[in-house]
Amino acid sequence: MSLTFPNRSRSYDEAGKRIRFVGHDGMFQISFSVATDAISKAESGTSTAEATYLAAFDTASSSIHDVARNAYDRTRKSIYVLTAADFR
After folding, report:
1. Nearest-angstrom CA–CA distance, 22 and 29
2. 3-state DSSP call for residue 43?
């Protein structure tokens, strides 16, 4: 099977400065998080940071999912942290 993202849910992890989301490979759930600095230049710690990061994720979700698929295709792990380096 290939990795899909049928669930559009995502959440902001303030402590880790990441957006968390999941993909599915058949019946297996794969956990992903993307570092906020990889998708947005917003300043963390502001009152609008969460909304800004989530909006940036939504805008770039197609390319984020492509990067997630590429990472998964290389190693087939169950947890990934995507950073700015993954988007180059």
Report:
1. 7
2. coil
